[in-house]
Every structure is written in structure tokens, then in C-alpha cells.
Amino acid sequence: MSKRNDKIRLAAFNFSGMYSQGWRHPDVQSDGENDFDWQVTFARTAERGLFDMIFMADESSLARPISDRDMLSRLSSVAGFEPATLMAALAACTQHVGLVHTMSTTYEQPYYLARQLASIDKISKGRAGWNLVTSGNPNEAANFGVKGGTTLHADRYRRAAEFHHVVTGLWDSIEDDAFLLDKEGGRYLDPEKIHALAHEGEFFSVKGPLRGGRSPQGHPIIAQAGASGEGRDLGSRTADVVFCSTHFIEDAQAFYADMKQRTVAHGRQASDLKIFPGTSIVWGETQSQAEDRFDEISRLYPDEIALENITGAVQLDVSNYDLDGPFPDLPPTRGMQGHQRAISAFAKHNNLSIRQTAQRLASSSKHRVLVGTTQSIVDNLEEWFMGYAADGFVIMNPYRLRSLEDVVTHIVPELQRRGLFRTAYEGKTLRENLGLSRPESRFAATRAVRSPDVG
Amino acid sequence: MSKRNDKIRLAAFNFSGMYSQGWRHPDVQSDGENDFDWQVTFARTAERGLFDMIFMADESSLARPISDRDMLSRLSSVAGFEPATLMAALAACTQHVGLVHTMSTTYEQPYYLARQLASIDKISKGRAGWNLVTSGNPNEAANFGVKGGTTLHADRYRRAAEFHHVVTGLWDSIEDDAFLLDKEGGRYLDPEKIHALAHEGEFFSVKGPLRGGRSPQGHPIIAQAGASGEGRDLGSRTADVVFCSTHFIEDAQAFYADMKQRTVAHGRQASDLKIFPGTSIVWGETQSQAEDRFDEISRLYPDEIALENITGAVQLDVSNYDLDGPFPDLPPTRGMQGHQRAISAFAKHNNLSIRQTAQRLASSSKHRVLVGTTQSIVDNLEEWFMGYAADGFVIMNPYRLRSLEDVVTHIVPELQRRGLFRTAYEGKTLRENLGLSRPESRFAATRAVRSPDVG
Ligand SMILES: Cc1cc2nc3c(=O)[nH]c(=O)nc-3n(C[C@H](O)[C@H](O)[C@H](O)COP(=O)(O)O)c2cc1C
Ligand SMILES: Cc1cc2nc3c(=O)[nH]c(=O)nc-3n(C[C@H](O)[C@H](O)[C@H](O)COP(=O)(O)O)c2cc1C
């Protein structure tokens, strides 16, 4: 029946401070993000649901500048763990689920980043991944000595490309089979199989090799979520997984086709890159229960938090309108047009006021939201997957662990029943579960060319 | 009987590549350092022995430049984990033992470092510690774009002092009781209890506050091992624990007295700083069994590795001597005189050749070595402790897990029998086990002074 012979992939989204009022929901442990045991439960729930990975988003700052003290005090973004250390600890508490976290190419050092990711990959026996971001947030810049906002977008992406080249080179600098462990002969390593990187570039000068050696996946998985031209270019050239935020299936299909085309243009297979649209899920036994639940979580968002999304994302000046009046027709504006169209359509379709629209938007973190029953939600996921709008989904959890539990308990079994989702992990590593091949060390390749009798 | 009413503290030293030929010993798992399960066993063995902490040393490079390929291939320094991620993972596998690891102030960013340490402290529920080092090794410099060797020693220590000030300020930037978690009122935090750091200094500009908030210990423990004037000054002002390498009790007593004096001069209590000399232990049922074991491990060190220690530490030009001849009388030279004197005395006392001296030195990583039975080893530890040469010891393990097991099985019970060591962990956090008070946030203190009715 299926035209596709691959299966849907799932990532469980986690980000302290996301769904910023989620902590207020009656079913939510308000300080869960700050509680390591809660984090273990979250990861194990995703693993129980056979998710490919948990994805830990991050920013190296609070969600607002300190001058916005009153607003800051309403958000849970101050809570939670640093993601590399959290993933390392969760690696010791799980066995199958992938552990992908965000680190920035704008403020990090490639040697540290390469080493920490390889180390998590070793601790987890091949389940680490890196969401590579370029950090456009001025609150982060202020924590790293960058004055007057952030670096220019193009500079960030040039630095990101060089950063990626250095990190992957460091991961390759000790070949897989370098370890001899010859006690008699006193040879720990084969000296032919350790390589300087000797990188000298515009932003970095890094000698190498990497202390720690190559990790189980060769390269931990690389995820990205860049939406700009530069972002799409880097993602299609270097990423294994791309996260995105698309609201209509046509937009998602266009993004999917564009990314796959770019991937092939870079000399890769289309299937080397997996596309995961963010998808917020509010499940109910019945449609009306699901809608009540969505309403309940939405109403936790005070105006000043909810309306930011309208003024920011949709560029609507709310001071000209009655907040309880119907969502107005918007003139076409520059930027985020798909998003704006999606929001208007969503408001009209559901007959929502401006305030209700803003609140619903906030509670689904601006991602598309599926409010419904097992059947309607799975129908939608199937449609997007079969229609080549998605290879998988980043599941957003508006009321956190409770949301994820709903997905694992109700959505996953129905996906399995329809033959759309795994019934057991296929492999041992994240790379194997995603159906991706393991990259050879770039130095092994070179050595094999130089002296074919060695390779 | 005891003049001291405190007890001996113990740290278990771990450093991939240390005792560089230890991997060749018949009782050693040659790739143990690279195996997470081995690392868990090491940490749990220390915990079984009620050690205060494991101490993970580190350098962000291999032990030799890549040009030294042949030598590199004999060393296990390429193996192992990045320490922050390893400590985070071990936190999830242990319950009591402290987890102290090295991170450098010369190449790291204070915001990342502060956040990772606070995160490990939260994951471990109060057991994290930071060995603050300034990284004088040119192999590391080459991985961070620093050309032509390292930065000047004094610059490194000025940067380290500012770095420490920023990190501790970030740890303080969200007060302990900032979390309100008021679901009804919609207040996650008390806005009065979050603070910008707004640091502007010679090396760093960091706005803060720290995402993640304050950690269980307030400040994770700070360890240092600086031996220079600048190093001693920074350590006595800012550290909780100082590691050192002293060979004679008189030298150790002088170092101990100097550090305690400096500590008091900085307005602290002498007991706020704990001094831990590195101590390598080779245990035997009998003295001759211990000596045979020391001989066995020493003979694993090939000349080119062993002799480096003689030419480096003692400044002896071996080309003028027969390696199998007796260790010569050395003229007094500049630098490391205590160490040189210790080595000469050790060689003479044990009637060792130059080669044997070099090999023994290498196998104990240049730290003092106690080769003996339970009685003689514990006598020595007691003498150093009672004589105010030490508050505790960093136990060096020449044949790694086997060495540590010997200490836990034989030395710890005898220390306990003599009333010199705990029989159960005293507290929940590393700080409590070390008998150190928990620092208040510097901002809480300020706020209390500004408005006494609030404090
Ligand atoms: C699902 C998803 C997750 C993201 N996670 C992060 C994150 O953890 N940290 C971050 O700084 N940016 C994150 N971003 C932002 C993207 O990395 C990217 O900067 C943004 O989509 C704008 O694209 P551009 O950088 O190409 O302009 C995320 C975006 C999406 C859609
Ligand atoms: C027991 C011990 C452990 C040490 N661990 C490290 C380490 O992990 N990384 C490092 O770069 N230096 C380490 N050092 C070196 C010291 O941090 C310090 O640089 C050295 O003792 C020289 O002192 P100075 O920096 O004041 O000149 C260690 C020293 C000792 C005695």
C-alpha cells in the first residue's frame, strides 16, 4: 500500500523554557526541567515509544534580557541543564534512543565541541548528535563579549561552515582501526593512523589530532534547522537531519523538495538527509476533549506573552484592534509569509479571536499543531509522510511529559498498526536507526589512494 | 591520641595517558580508559572506598606533538573521554563520590564552563568540582589558534583570576530561593532574585545571568595545583582543594604552612583550604612482594620514555653516563630542587641504577611513591597527616584499577581502624563531605546589606 519503503522517524523535542507557560498546567511538574529524574523519565518515555532521538534545543542565555525582569520572572527558561552534560548523563540512563543537542558555532571552540560530542558518542555507544546552530540571539552575544548585538548572518554561516569542517576533521584524525593495544610490542597505536589536522582558515587554526580518538558513529549525527538560503545550503551539504517549521503541506513539500534537490546538487543521495517538520500534538479521546485541552493550555498564556507572537511573527499591530474581536485579514508582508498565512487560516478556520489565536500560537511554540484524536492525528502524519512533506517529525509537547506520554501511548501504536513506524529499534547506533551509512575517516580515504596496497 | 580532630581525605586520580605504560601491565585492561564501563567501575571502586572524590586530570591535546609520531604510538593518551561529559555520565552511575575534573581558563569561555559545572552539580545533586588550570602546554595552544607556544605565565594567571571571578559571579546570578513556581500567580521566579553580572574586564565581557540557575553546592568545589607564586596566590585565595607534588615531609610541611598562611592572609580560615599531595601507592602482602610489583611495572617503561623524566625533571644529561651504573651525585641546579633531591635520595636509598630510577619515576608519574605493606603505607600517610604535611592525598594508581582496588581493600580499612578515615559519608554533597561551608550568593549578600528587612 505504501509508496515509500522507509518509515516515519520521530524526535521528542525538549527545551527548557519552550511552551513558556507549560509549567503552569495542572498536570505538569512545574520544576520538571530542573529535575534530573524528570529528564530521565522524559528520555525513557521517548525510548519506550521507540523514538529515534530526543532533541534538546538550547540557547546560551535566558529568553529575555535582564532588563525585562518582570517578563523573565514568568518564564521557565532559567531552569534546566546544560545540554552536553545532560545528554552525557542521559546516555548512562538509556540504551537505544538518540541524544541530539544544540551547540553553537558562533561562540564555541571546535576542539572542545568535537571532543565533547565524540565523548558523548562513546559514552552512549553511538547515539550522539549535534544540532549545529549559528546563534542569532543578541542575549547570547552579550554573554560572550560580542558588543552591539550579534555578528552578521553571512559571517556566522561562513564561520559555521569552517567550524563544521574542523570538527569533522578532528573526528577523523584518529582512524577507527588505529588502536593496536599490543602489550608485548609496546604499541598502543598504529603511528600511520594518527593524523594532524593542521587546519589554517579564516576563523580557526587547529593542529589536532583529537584526544579521545574516533567515536562509534565515526561522526555523531549532525542536525540543523537553518531556514535562510545560507542555512539551507549548509544543511543540505553537511546535515543528516534538518528540523523545520512548516505549517501547510504545500509549503512543507516545497521545502522538502528544495532541500532534497540541494542535497543531490552537493553530490549526496537524497535519502542522506532526513527532513523533520516541528509538529505540536494535543491529543484527546474525542475531538472536543482535544480542543478543550488545547483551550486549557492556551489560556495559561498572559496577553503580554501571547501577543508577542502576533506582533513578531505576523507583524500585526494589536493596538489598533479589539483583542476579543475576530482575527483580521492581513495585508501580505515581507518575511515569514507561509507562517503568516498559516496563522490567518488557522484563526479563521477555528473562528478565533486575536487573543485566542495568540495564545494557541504561543502554546504550540509557533509550530503547526495537530489537535485531535488518534485517527485524525495519524492521518495527518501519514499524509505528510506519504506526500513527501516529511521524513519524520519533531514532536513538540505543549504540556511536556504528559504530551509525550499521549503520543507514545496513542499515536505510536496506530503508526505501527499502519506499518508506518518501527516495532523495534533496527540498529545499535542512532545512525543505524536512521538508516544512514557510517562515514569513513577522510584520512583513511586519502591514505588508501596514496598507497592502495595499504587500504 | 590524634592531635587533629579532622580526618584524612582521599581523591582517586584518573587521567588517560598517565602512567603511560600502565596499559601494558598484565593485570590492566589495556583499553580501559576508553571503555565507559571501566570508568564506571573505577568511580564505584572509589565510592566503595568512601573516597571524597575522583579527580580527572586533563589536557586538550595528546601528550606529544604529532611530529613525535613514534613516541605517540606508545602512549595511551589518545584514549579516554572528555572529562565534563564523563563526569556528567558518572554522576548518573554513583551516589556519593565527588566528581572533580580539569578545565582550562586559558581556552574556555567562562559562560560555558560555569554552565557545564553547575549542570553537573545539579545532575550529581551536589558532587561536582572544577580543577582550575591555566594550561602551559604548547600542544594545547596549537589546538586553539595560539601560535608560537603558549601565552605568558603571568598573563595566564591574570586571565585565570578574572575567569574565576566571572564563573563564580555567574553561579551567584540566580539566588538559591529565586524559584517561586507559583502556578496561580504565573510567577516562576522572584524578579528581585535574578541578577545581571554585567562584567566588563580585561579579558571578558559577560552580561549574565546564568541559564540554569544556582546549583546544589552554590559553588562547585574548586581545586587547583599551581606551584608557582602566582599559582599559590590564586589557589590560597580561591581554591577549596590544592593538589601538589611534594616528596619529602619537610618540603610538604613547608608548602602546607605557606599555603595555609596565604589563605589566612586572604581573610579565610586555614581550614577552608585542603592540601592533597599526590601519592603513588604500590601495595604488597609483604615488603618484597610490593617491591617486586614496583619493579614489574617499572620495567614496562622503555628507555626513551623513562629517561625523559631524568633529563627533564632532574636535568641530568644521561649521554655522559652508563644507564646501568649507579645514580650519580647531582650538582644543585635551578628549579624543582626538592624534586631533584627526592629523586637522588630515592635512588641512593634503594641502590638503583640510572635506568631503574628513571623507570620508577615514570611509573609513579613523578609523584612520591609508597612501596610497602598495609602497615608501612598507612604509617606514612598518618605521619604526613599528623605532621601537617597533608589534609588528604591524591592517590595515584600505577596499575590503575588494580592499584585503586588494593588501596580500597587494604589501606582504607586500616586508616579507619586507626580512626583516621570516615566509616560512612558524612553528608550528601562533596562540600559537606569535605567539611566546607556553602557560599552564599554574592548578590544575596549585597541585597541583604541594601535592605536589611529583606535578608
Ligand atoms: C525545530 C527547530 C529547532 C531549533 N532549535 C534551535 C536551538 O536549539 N538553538 C538555536 O539557537 N536555534 C534553533 N533554531 C533556529 C535555527 O537554528 C535557525 O537559526 C533559524 O531557523 C533561522 O534560520 P537561519 O539561521 O538560516 O536564518 C531552531 C529552529 C527550528 C525550526
Ligand atoms: C596532582 C596534580 C594534578 C594536575 N593536573 C593538571 C591537569 O589536569 N591539567 C593541567 O593542565 N595541569 C595539571 N597540573 C599542573 C598544575 O595545574 C600547574 O600548572 C603546575 O603544577 C605548575 O604550576 P604553575 O601553573 O603555578 O606554574 C597538575 C599538577 C598536579 C601536581
Plain-language structure description:
Two copies of one chain form a homodimer. Chain A has helices at 36-48, 69-72, 83-91, 110-123, 138-141, 153-172, 229-238, 249-265, 287-298, 303-314, 337-350, 354-363, 374-386, 401-417, 430-433, 442-450; strands at 9-14, 53-56, 98-104, 128-133, 179-182, 187-189, 199-200, 205-206, 221-224, 241-244, 274-283, 368-372, 392-396. Chain A is α/β, with parallel strands linked by helices. Chain A has two domains: 9-173 and 199-284 and 373-448, Luciferase-like domain (TIM Barrel, Alpha-Beta Barrel), CATH 3.20.20.30; 289-366, no CATH class. In chain A, the strands form three sheets. An eight-stranded parallel β-barrel of chain A has the order 1-2-3-4-9-10-11-13, surrounded by eight helices. A two-stranded antiparallel sheet of chain A has the order 5-6. In chain A, strand 5 and strand 6 (187-189) form a beta hairpin. In chain A, helix 1 (36-48) packs parallel to helix 14 (401-417). The radius of gyration of chain A is 23 Å and the shape is globular. Chains A and B meet through helix 2, helix 3, helix 4, strand 5 and strand 6 of A and helix 2, helix 3, helix 4, strand 5 and strand 6 of B. Residues 57-59, 102, 131, 133-136, 225-228, 230-231, 243-245, 278, 394 of chain B line the site of one flavin mononucleotide. Chains A, B: Belongs to the NtaA/SnaA/DszA monooxygenase family. Chains A, B: Residues 27-384 form the Luciferase-like domain. Chains A, B: FMN binds at residues 58, 102, 153, 157, 228.
What string gives the helices and strands of chain A in order? EHEHHEHEHHEEEEEHEHEHHHHEHEHHH
Please identify the top-level CATH class of the largest domain in chain A: Alpha Beta
Which kinds of small molecule does this entry bind, naming each only once? flavin mononucleotide
Tally the structural domains of chain A.
Answer: 2
Oligomer: homodimer
Q: Kindly report the greatest chain-chain contact and the residue count on each side.
A: A-B, 84 and 84 residues
What is the CATH topology of the largest domain in chain A? TIM Barrel
Q: Measured on Cα atoms, how large is the radius of gyration of chain A?
A: 23 Å
- Proportion of residues in helical segments of chain A: 40-55%
Largest beta sheet of chain A: what is the strand line-up?
Answer: 1-2-3-4-9-10-11-13
Low-confidence stretches of chain A: 451-455
**Architecture of the largest domain in chain A, CATH level 2?**
Alpha-Beta Barrel
Bin the strand percentage of chain A. Answer: 5-15%
Protein name (chains A, B): LLM class flavin-dependent oxidoreductase
InterPro entries (chains A, B): Diverse_substr_monoxygenases, Luciferase-like_dom, Luciferase-like_sf, NTA_MOA
Family (chains A, B): Belongs to the NtaA/SnaA/DszA monooxygenase family.
GO molecular function (chains A, B): monooxygenase activity; oxidoreductase activity, acting on paired donors, with incorporation or reduction of molecular oxygen
